[in-house]
Amino acid sequence: MFKKIKSHFATYDVEVKRDDLYKVGVRYDRLFELIHMLRDEYDYKTLNAITCTDWIEEGHFSLTYMLTTLDRKHTFMIQTMINRESPHAKSLSHEFKQAQIMERDLHEMFGIDFMGNDNLKELSLENWIHTPPLRREFDTLEFVNNHLTFREGRDDNVDTKAESKRLRALKKAEKEAAKKAKEEAEAKKLKDEEVKDGE
Fold first, then answer.
1. Percent of the chain scored above 90 by pLDDT?
2. Which of 35, 114, 41 is nearest to 76 (CA)?
3. DSSP tag of 95
4. What DSSP string describes 153-183?
5. Which residues of 53-69 are buried (b: 16+ CB within 10 A; e: fewer)?
6. How many other C-beta atoms lie within 10 A of the C-beta of residue 193?
């Protein structure tokens, strides 16, 4: 299989990550041909995930499609690059139904247009009009400072790091107190038995 992929798709970027996990890099114009070959000839029937990595310095997004065999014993990661300035890719939603929601998520978070997916409406961001939040030029701190109100003066406005530390210390103290109480109870019981034996 690897030899065929290397020769047919003119790529040497095939890697065995584990005995059950493989990865291949392929040009975008050959991506769907490779996906179809793996599905039709090698039983990679399930699309597990489509992920995206933002290579802002290189001007592209890396899309990774993860296919698994029907018996769930082998997974193939197929990676390709698309231009991040006008990102678009063909939709797989007509061949793998689960691709529809995966593509909706990537459309929302990275701004990728999946051509052929008729359901690219918002998924989790309500009325979002800003830069897609997982693109690396999106400044989270600036967005929070400009658009969100801090909960100053409220009882539940706590420093989460300090609060976690306080709760851990409290739990530790309770555990130590319970241990001490148990030891004292056992010591008292032993003393009472010694007194009783001495009578």
1. 64
2. 35
3. T
4. T-TT---HHHHHHHHHHHHHHHHHHHHHHHH
5. ebeeeeebbbbebbbbb
6. 10
Note the residue count of the chain: 199
Domain borders along the chain are: 2-147, 159-199
pLDDT tens digit sequence for 168-188: 999 999 999 999 999 999 988
Who contacts 63 (Cβ-Cβ below 8 Å, separation ≥6)? 50, 51, 52, 79, 80, 81, 82, 89, 106, 112
Rounded to whole angstroms, how far apart are CA atoms 111 and 144? 20
> pLDDT below 50 — which residues of the chain?
none
Looking at residue 88, what is its pLDDT?
95
Cα separation values, 172 from 167, 176, 177, Å = 9, 6, 9
**Quick one: tokens of 105?**
């998520």
pTM (predicted TM-score): 0.71
Within 8 A by CB and 6+ apart from 50, the residues are 63, 64, 65, 66, 92, 99, 102, 103, 106
Q: Which residue type sits at 118? A: D
Judged by DSSP in three states, 32 sits in helix
* Contacts by residues 6-13 (CB-CB < 8 Å, ≥ 24 positions apart): 8/37, 9/33, 9/34
User: Which residues on neighbouring strands pair with residue 65, listed in sequence order?
Assistant: 50, 78
Distance CA 70, CA 103 (A): 22
Domain 2-147 has CATH 3.10.310.40: no
